[in-house]
Amino acid sequence: MVPVRLLGPRLAIREYRHTEGDVDALHALFGDPEVTRYLPFGPSDRETCADQIELYLEEAMAEQRGTYRLAVTRRADADADTDAHAEAEADTCPDPYDCADDPQDATPIAHASLTLGEFRSASLGYVLRRDVWGRGYAGEIVGLLCDFAFRTLDLHRLAARVDVDNTASARVLTRLGFRLEGRERHDRFKAGAWSDSYRYSLLADEWPGAAADRRRAGEGG
Which of 124, 166, 180, 195 could share a disulfide with 38, CB 3.0–4.6 Å? Predict the structure, then answer.
């Protein structure tokens, strides 16, 4: 396997490791009822989170990888305590392979995922620890995932599903260029109740970095 490692202005995205720190970090996410409020499952215990990391590592070792479930950490040189960076400023990330190294033992503060589908498509997801909400990190995570999907994996389409009450995530996707495709009625059943979701999508031609790559390739030909 070639480990995934993406670097943005303030965040780094890497593979999970089966360490106490990563298990604790995942449990801080998936064990929090507020964090899992809009997810299709309820809070998880620590043992379940440890099992999940085992699954993530098995998926990463697959001969033809179809799922990327990744840990998000703060970079050492980023100002983690400032709100000066708005989400709009994190929308367009630099080339993740040109950035300085991030600390390999940094504690994850968020979870990111890409699930590949047919016809060069994928669904993306992200979850952030409650104490880092409101700092613009979601926009940077989605931007890094888009860059990876379109410029590294050469995908054509990305999709994202958002609970209709999760207005913060809807704003992040819209700001990054995702378009609302429609509303899926009663697509989830949780805690004894049905809920609806909005479905968003983004095409490679609509992502600035991927579009610029294709223009350069055309000029070179």
Answer: 166
